[in-house]
Design brief:
The chain is an all-alpha fold. The chain contains 13 helices and 2 strands, in the order H-H-H-E-E-H-H-H-H-H-H-H-H-H-H. The chain has one domain: MetI-like (MetI-like fold, Orthogonal Bundle), CATH 1.10.3720.10. About 70% of the residues lie in helices and about 0% in strands.
Length: about 300
Amino acid sequence: MRKTHQRRVIIGFLAAPVLLYTVFVASPYVQAFYIALTDWRGLSAEIGLIGLGNFTELFGDPVFWQALRNNLLLLVTLPIVTIGVGLFLAFMLNAAGGPRSGEIRGVRGAKFYRVVYFFPYVLSIAIIGVLWKNIYNPINGLLNGALRAVGLEEVQPSWLGDERLAFWAVLAVLVWNGIGFYVVLFTAGIKAIPASLLEAAVLDGASRTQVFFRITIPLIWENIRTAAVYLGIAALDAFAVVQIMTGGGPNDSTQVGSFYLYQNAFSYGRFGYASAMGVVLFVVTLALSAFTLRATRKERIEF
């Protein structure tokens, strides 16, 4: 009787969330697979089945392949740079200050730096896009103004207007925006390491570099795996920053799959084609997430 009552309570609490998730999340995913097989224009009541026609056209679309190449390049660079910088900053803020009064501490002013590093993460992505678009402005932007101030008047790049620089300028913004979250994530992992381990290593003559690579990283590997998955998903998105800062240009040099999907659906009225693109991106994201988790799997270290 008691178990039956508990089961009813659990079902009662889960029913509404599961229903909402099914209607607003799972159902659109399923519908996308069907719409991908049609020529639906979005506003028309008529839907014609065209089989794999959208996929055939998609795999021959040079803009889609350019967008996918950019996503894959982000997939490699964004996690490496963000995790690398995040690990370094988290270690400096929590364990690089050396032992004082028998404790391992971060560098002086660590609390202030934590606030500074995390601040960009709390800003709206729209604000970040507009802010950096103005910073990159080649005429009156802060970046080129700083170059002029130090006597580099001849070095005035068109950051978002140059095909060679635009992608890397967008990447820098993505790293700047997300670094605070990953500093907090890695800080939580470092704080969970018993201080006695770090202190014993220091007393045994281990350098900061050895403590970082041989103790800290192995013991927070689960945090690093989590960050790699999050950043992999972010790399396959990057929609908002690209839309606000570059619109996919110049000459599709910053085009990404999510924004090209949006353009086809809401600018060109090709919802069937956009759905086919969404299905491909869904499969790619799922496969890469599974691969990342499998490739980074290690035996858990207990402490």
